[in-house]
């Protein structure tokens, strides 16, 4: 089945760039697009409205999940934060709407993991975890079928990319003169404590060694301009090192541009007859 009707949840930096990119890469417009925003927001920001009209023949902006469920999109993509997955995830899945979530860190909470798994089963659909800002999930998930000895993830970002996170309490982000490790712990702790910065810790953990066995370091580094993600895997099948130097999105320095492109990929792989 080809994807013709898409729902995007959120109208922030990922959503805006997702629409911009889709407008360029779609060979033919979608039939319908519905964008779900917070209560009280029923029109799209002007730049998003223009991009949306290039992506789909019919565009609807809504602040009500019931509109999305009634519209029955082929796919919903969440790019709005943990609160949005809590607010909409179960109902989308229970209603049989395949759902891709950028905010994968929600699954670091076992209760939510269970609720969303049950909802997907009840709706006979799937909750899809995109690679997001990182890569190598294919080999990591394959190696998980053998013996994974260690999976270690390091996130290195410029100090300003950590503003508004608990890093502010751990270090003085404004006066760093060199790289500073402010978090070392499990992927579970990272994803829970850093909901806007460490979703990929959960993505990596869920593809591989699990939320408690996957180790995470987070570093504020005044000498970098990019969001640098490193994954080190030791296993019976292979030793793997992945290093991604992600460019930040124009609107949000916390978020890396590959996140946007990985969501575009989730759309495009449902539009063509050959999937890679
Ligand atoms: N897996 C990955 O690799 C990555 C995942 N992420 C996840 O994606 C999320 C979004 O990132 P980004 O676009 O950069 O963030 P932004 O802050 O730029 O945008 C978030 C948008 O979501 C909206 N929003 C928040 N809550 C709701 C809700 N309950 N219903 C509808 N809309 C809502 C916000 O609206 P308002 O302005 O009204 O608050 C805003 O428009 C992050 O919070 C993070 O969880 C981010 C980067 C990488
Ligand atoms: O985009 C990134 O660099 C990663 C990120 O914010 C997250 O995992 O939440």
How would you portray this structure in words?
Residues 177-264 form the Aspartate dehydrogenase domain. InterPro entries: Asp/hSer_DH_NAD-bd, Asp_DH, Asp_DH_prok, L-Asp_DH, NAD(P)-bd_dom_sf. The chain has 276 residues and is an alpha/beta fold. The protein contains ten helices and eleven strands. The protein has a six-stranded parallel β-sheet with strand order 3-2-1-4-5-6, with helices on both faces. Helix 1 crosses helix 10 (257-268) and helix 4 packs parallel to helix 5. The model has no long low-confidence stretch (mean pLDDT 97). Bound molecules: NADPH dihydro-nicotinamide-adenine-dinucleotide phosphate and oxaloacetate ion. Residues 133, 196-200, 227, 246, 254-256, 259 line the site of oxaloacetate ion (OAA).
Keywords, please?
binds oxaloacetate ion, 276 residues, NAD, NADP binding, binds NADPH dihydro-nicotinamide-adenine-dinucleotide phosphate, 34% helix, globular, five-stranded mixed β-sheet, L-Asp_DH, 25% strand, EC 1.4.1.21, single chain, alpha/beta
Q: Report helical residue fraction.
A: 25-40%
The stretches of 5 or more residues where confidence is low (pLDDT under 50) are: none
Report the radius of gyration as a whole number of Å.
19 Å
Q: Which sheet architecture does the biggest sheet show?
A: 6 strands, parallel
Estimate what percentage of residues fall within beta strands: 15-25%
Distance between the termini: 16 Å
Q: Please give the order of strands in the largest beta sheet.
A: 3-2-1-4-5-6
Number of helices: 10
Which small compounds were modeled alongside the protein? Answer: NADPH dihydro-nicotinamide-adenine-dinucleotide phosphate, oxaloacetate ion
Organism: Pontibaca salina
Catalytic activity: L-aspartate + NADP(+) + H2O = oxaloacetate + NH4(+) + NADPH + H(+); L-aspartate + NAD(+) + H2O = oxaloacetate + NH4(+) + NADH + H(+)
Pfam family, one: Asp_DH_C
Active site: 229
